[in-house]
Amino acid sequence: MLRFVPIITIAFMIGPVSAGLIGTLLPAFGILPALGGTGPGLDPWVTLFEQPGLWHSVRLSLVNGLIASFVSVAIVVLFCAAWQGTRIFRVMQRILSPILSVPHAAAAFGLAFLIAPSGWIARLVAQFSGWDRPPDLAIIHDPLGLAMIAGLVAKEIPFLFLMTLAALPQADTERTARITATLGYGRIAGWFKATLPRIYPQIRLPVLAVLAYSTSVVDVAIILGPTTPAPLAVRILGWLSDPDLALRFMASSAAILQLIIVLMAMVIWMTGEKIIGVIGRHWAENGQRFKRDQGARHGSAVLAILATGAIILGLVILLIWSVAGFWGFPEILPRSFSLRLWQREYDAIGSSLGTTLLIAVPTVIIAVALVLGCLENEVRQAHKPGRGVMWLIYLPLLVPQISFMFGLQVFFTLIGLERTLISVVLAHLVFVLPYVFLSLSDPFRALDPRYGQTALCLGASPSGVFWKVRLPLLTRAILTAMAVGLAVTVGQYLPTLLIGAGRFATVTTEAVALASGGDRRMIGIYGLLQMVLPFAGFACALLIPAILFRHRRGMSAHNRG
Amino acid sequence: MPSGIKTGLELRDVRIGLDGRELVAVDLVIEPGEIVTLMGPSGSGKSSLLGHICGTLPDQFKVAGQVILDGQSLDGKAPQDRHVGILFQDDLLFPHLSVGGNLAFALSTNVRGKANRRARVEEALRSADLDGFADRDPATLSGGQRARIALMRVLLSEPCALLLDEPFSKLDSDLRGQIRSFVFNLCRKNGLPTLMVTHDPEDGIAAGGRVINLA
């Protein structure tokens, strides 16, 4: 039984992606019998290309995705190069882990409340400049999409940073840094010349996932992105939600176009990798040492602190708005505080939290069980899967959600599962499984295999070893993986909206739905609610092992996970 | 337990290879209560040999020959059915269990009843001069105490043979002699055929048995 778990797990990820892509591809060429499309044709594409501002939308998606990814990667590697092994580096490590669990939409709302013309920064400036009304500037929803890029960068930095952190020990970076320093290299130059080439292959898949995400993002684009026209993915969602069902065909073509854009972005990115690789090799050998890099080092710290600070401050402002009474411009704080809205929304809050958990609990349990099965199978078969498997695990994160979610909806309708909890859980699993796997595989594989061998030689059965030795030793890692999985399902917007067809109102779908209304107090409430469950999850992952093993000092060393 | 007749541990022309290269080849019989020392540089396949005997060697290794314990072949048996105990250079006490929990983990389910099992654990602790340590956290013990618990844990699983994988190399030099004689005495007293691999010549001298040098 155990040996089939890896296949089942991969099927749960690849199956929906494939079914969804087919279900999008067919209507894109006019085939969708349910809506009267029977013969193959190019009509959907003709209609699509007639849409005003289509190429503008395409350019926004492609260019902004590339810029956002490049800036996030640049800040992360620069910061690691400049500060690895220092105190600020360790502090950053602690701060960024919880930030990773903040759903994209909540972070984007926080940022919007911070930088909008009537936002908190403008209020701060107003104290000195004497503004009595918000400046007349399009700072969010700006036509170039700069606010959206900023939101993406701030939210992708924690993910890329933690992925880089996981890669660091494998490249013996501490000693490499000592060697480059004794050879007279500045910190940053030494790291870029000697460490980055060894780290990059390890973080390449996460980087590509960030690129695919940034190029096709929907929720952040709705909250911060340009509107006239919007990036392509947002317009596709609009067409998919249009009461005119005939638009579904064109929307499918657009979803395929979105996939092509993501592939183009990846080709451009990989070409860039090649060019930088060639130039970098020459640069590494030219002996320049860049000993005076204080300026660059501090610059990288400022950027990283700015990005994290923006998210944290944004969340605080969400909190303030959720309890704000009258709060006119340019006041720094509201004149009064009130829980009136929380009371009014009490029932709605309860039901959206309930719905979120209704999806999250089965999803996380299934995901953790499957991933544990895969890893345990790995131990029993005594061989590790190759690098190709990593591509399979990342596949759901490399294909844009909007390109296969509509097709998946069509597929679920076909097999009679539309608008059911099962189909929503299956759709969430596609994205939860990769993250749970990434979170759990390192600590599981790092467990000293001699514990298992010792237990076997003491007469324990293989399943006894799993339940009585490996599982307890990995308590904290497993709870952390569950918290990661919880954070991922809570943050899902498109899968919940499209697969659930509006039947499942989670904290995230409710929050994004509020974006157009502009009721800041309500946005504050639902933005906060998005964070409640992930934070509670991570708090449990810290507290439960600490209580369970309070008399076992050796467990803290074994369960860094 | 196998046939009941103690004839020792027999390695009949055992050869272990990896990627077409032979790592180790031995042919020997270890009598009950005898301690045989296997010396060799690191990478000479000593630990692979022990892994093969207790059944935890990954299958990419090529293995030939027979391993026989008390007259019965071990080849193809699952590790948990072999009754072969092993001690590593680290004590590998399970950090999530108490000292008593670690020892009870090793006790067979044939020892029934909570009180009965507890008594066996206490008895083992007493014979290691660690009375009253059952509820302690293993992480709070000294290296010497942990080493003794690890040995008691193996012995409670009632092995028919014992393997020692550089068991003393991580101990302080003043402790090493004391733990060595503790382990060796119990091996002899329990009549266990014992195979020790090490690269410390003093281990072999202290064991007082045959010393085999691997090339």
UniProtKB/TrEMBL annotation, chain A:
Q: Name one GO biological process term.
A: transmembrane transport
The organism's superkingdom is given as Bacteria
Q: The ABC transmembrane type-1 domain covers which part of the protein? A: 54-268, 353-544
Q: Does the keyword Transmembrane helix apply?
A: yes
The protein's topology relative to the membrane is: Multi-pass membrane protein
Q: Which Pfam families match?
A: BPD_transp_1 (PF00528)
Classify the main location.
Answer: membrane
Q: Name one GO cellular component term.
A: plasma membrane
Fetch the InterPro entries from UniProt.
MetI-like, MetI-like_sf
Compartments annotated for it: namely:
Cell inner membrane; Cell membrane
Question: Which terms are listed as keywords in the entry?
Answer: Cell inner membrane, Cell membrane, Membrane, Transmembrane, Transmembrane helix, Transport
Q: Where are the transmembrane segments?
A: 7-32, 62-83, 104-126, 146-168, 205-225, 245-269, 301-329, 349-372, 392-415, 421-440, 473-494, 523-549
Family of the protein in this entry:
Belongs to the binding-protein-dependent transport system permease family.
Q: Under what name is this protein listed?
A: ABC transporter permease
Species, as recorded:
Thalassospira profundimaris
TrEMBL record, chain B:
SMART domains (UniProt xref): AAA (SM00382)
Task: Mention any Pfam family matching this sequence.
Answer: ABC_tran
Q: Which GO terms describe its molecular function?
A: ATP binding; ATP hydrolysis activity
| UniProt keyword Transport, yes or no | yes
Tell me the domain of life: Bacteria
Q: Which Gene3D superfamilies match?
A: P-loop containing nucleotide triphosphate hydrolases
Q: Which UniProt keywords apply?
A: ATP-binding, Nucleotide-binding, Transport
Please state every residue range assigned to the domain named ABC transporter: 5-215
What PANTHER family does this protein's entry cite? Answer: SPERMIDINE/PUTRESCINE IMPORT ATP-BINDING PROTEIN POTA, SPERMIDINE_PUTRESCINE IMPORT ATP-BINDING PROTEIN POTA
The protein's name: ABC transporter ATP-binding protein
Biological source species: Thalassospira profundimaris
